[in-house]
Amino acid sequence: MNTSIAFIGGGNMARSLIGGLIAQGRPPASIRVAEPVPPLREALQRDFGVAVFEHAEEAVTGADTWVFAVKPQVMRPVCEGLASAAQSGKPLVISIAAGITATQLERWLGGRLPVVRTMPNTPALLGAGVTGLFATAAVDAAGKQLTETLLSAAGKTVWIADEAQMDAVTAVSGSGPAYVFLLAEAMIHAGVQEGLSEPAARTLALQTVLGAARMLTESNVDAAELRRRVTSPNGTTQAAIETFEAGGFRSLVDEAIHAARVRGVELSAAND
User: Fold this and answer.
1) What is the CATH number of the domain that holds 29?
2) CA spacing 20 to 30 A to 98: which of 72, 195, 210, 259?
3) Which parts of 14-142 are beta strand (E)?
4) What is the predicted pLDDT for the residue at 2?
5) DSSP SS3 for 5
6) 5-24: per-residue pLDDT in tens?
7) In this predicted model, what pLDDT tens digit does every residue of 221-260 receive, in sequence order?
8) Residue 99, by phi and psi: left (phi above 0), alpha (psi -120 to 50) or beta?
9) At how many degrees (to 10) do helices 38-48 and 12-23 cross?
10) What's the rounded Cα separation, in Å, for the pair 134 and 260?
């Protein structure tokens, strides 16, 4: 890994990826970060020993891989401000911004560039995330491998062949942690309603979510079978599951994820 990487934006997700790269053995001197907020910039330099800059134009100098880690709303002006440097250096461009297409990125940067669009989720901050990856035809095998190495610092990676599916990735995994948080929140509330103390309900609900997630990821048994195994005929679990099903739980999840996907398409159009 001899390439130099420039991060445009030094927020939480960038910090997670930078920390992961350094833990993998990448030299801090090969990482450059543009971050306009002084305390964040200083913390990056202090914590990781990377080169930090106030302006993106300074950070990308000499870097052959650029990672855009800024808010989708400011992506266009940031890219357009770097178009001349992009056309001169022809870097590999990696984006972690939701709702911004590879076509938009390439156009804003002047065209004819290899672009990888990614969608990580917030558990990436713990190294327990999952990231959907889409590469344009201009990205070679080395570019794909570098991107996978970079994002694997945040957890699992999944390559998506059709960029149109990236909005579904966002709806399932990008927004997905909030769905689990909502379920945990509801379970805690329900436990309190049934007479448990809030601390007891919280511990019971959170450890249940954690344990269930580990069973799903470590047992090599699919979700439907795990559910069947804990649902004894005419037992307490069956009573709860039947109530969920009668309330249209599956349809509601379908509708929620569809709404998130549609919103992703709308955000793309709004930022164009």
Assistant:
1) 3.40.50.720
2) 210
3) 31-34, 51-53, 65-68, 92-95, 115-119, 129-135
4) 55
5) strand
6) 999 999 999 999 999 899 88
7) 999 999 999 999 999 999 999 999 999 999 999 999 999 9
8) left
9) 10
10) 19
Average pLDDT value for residue range 45-59: 97
Give me 260's structure tokens.
């998130």
Same domain, 121 and 154: yes
C-alpha closest to that of 94 among 22, 145, 38: 145
Longest dimension (CA), the chain: 69
What local confidence, expressed as pLDDT, does residue 1 receive?
44
Which CATH number do you get for residue 197? Answer: 1.10.3730.10
Local structure of 50: helix, strand or coil: coil
Burial profile 11-45: b = 16 or more Cβ within 10 angstroms, e = fewer:
bebbbbbbbbbbeeebeeebbbbbbeeeebbeebb
Token pair of 170 as six digits: 């966002």
Q: Which domain holds residue 121?
A: 5-164
- First-to-last CA distance in the chain? 34
